[in-house]
Amino acid sequence: MPSIGLGTWQQRDSSVVHRVVHQALEMGYRLIDTATAYRNETAIGEALNHVFTQENSQLSREDIWITSKLSPRQQGLEQAEAAVYESLEKLCTDYIDLYLIHWPGVSKKSPDSPEHRKYREESWKSLERLYKQGKVRAIGVSNYTIRHLEEMREYAEIMPMVNQCELHPLCPQPELLQYCQKNDIVFIAYASFGESELLPPSTQLPELSVAAARRPDLTCAQILLLWGLQHNAAVIPKSSSEDHLRENLAATRQLLSSEELEILDKIDYTRHRHFCWNPEKIV
Question: NADP-dependent oxidoreductase domain spans which residues (predicted)?
Answer without folding.
Answer: 4-268
